Amino acid sequence: MTMTFDVITIFPEFFGSILGHGLLKRAMASGHATIRLHDLRNYTDDRHRTVDDRPFGGGPGMVFKPEPLFRAVEALCSEAPEKSRRVILLSPQGRLLSQVVAEELSHAEHLILICGRYEGVDERVAENLVTDELSIGDFVLSGGELPAAVVMEATLRLLPGVLGNEESIGQDSFAVPAGAPAEVRHGLLDCPHYTRPAEFRDWKVPEVLLSGDHAQIRQWRRRRALEKTWRRRPDLLAQVPLSEEDRRWLEELKRMEM
Fold first, then answer.
1. Of the listed 109, 119, 190, 246, which one is catalytic?
2. What is the mean pLDDT of residues 155-163?
3. Residue 107: inside a domain, yes or no?
């Protein structure tokens, strides 16, 4: 499967370095992704190529006009009307991007990403043109270009063959366990990882990882993942399926902290 990403932006040159390195470059080279950049100014109809205007009712800043965005998206949709498609506005007001949302998006054939700027976009775009509004966090950026790159990488890495090691995806932080109920929105944080040398500045790799005992290693990794999640993101534990052994270990951790 090849996913097509159409990115609508007033700064297409922003993506030059991002698309020239790493996973996005590999995904395009291997045929898993087609990423096309579209300058929103090319969809204007005045000699000044105007994409924004002052907000009605007054206030600071400028707002993207609806006409260029509708023209751009409708032109892109008309090229392949039969594709499964999502039209995504990158916005601080959107639902938060998560591993589950990335998994959901990875099943679409075509994602159109609208990079907002300034004070935002005309609300008629959000209400009548897009299928999703996404945010990458509870903070504000100057534009949607960085979030668009985040969405592309988070989504593409889930496609079979892109990473070349699908086993690692299931071990990622926030990865939802296979077969988990639909209401499970997150997995645990990942366990700690170590590599050579086995001792560095008197800091030693845990002995269990050098033992070759795979059952013990699995148990250690599970317990460390539970511990890290409990310490750093305890909110996630309420959404993760836990075994009786998991619960006993968490209770033991709490007793040790008392």
1. 119
2. 94
3. yes
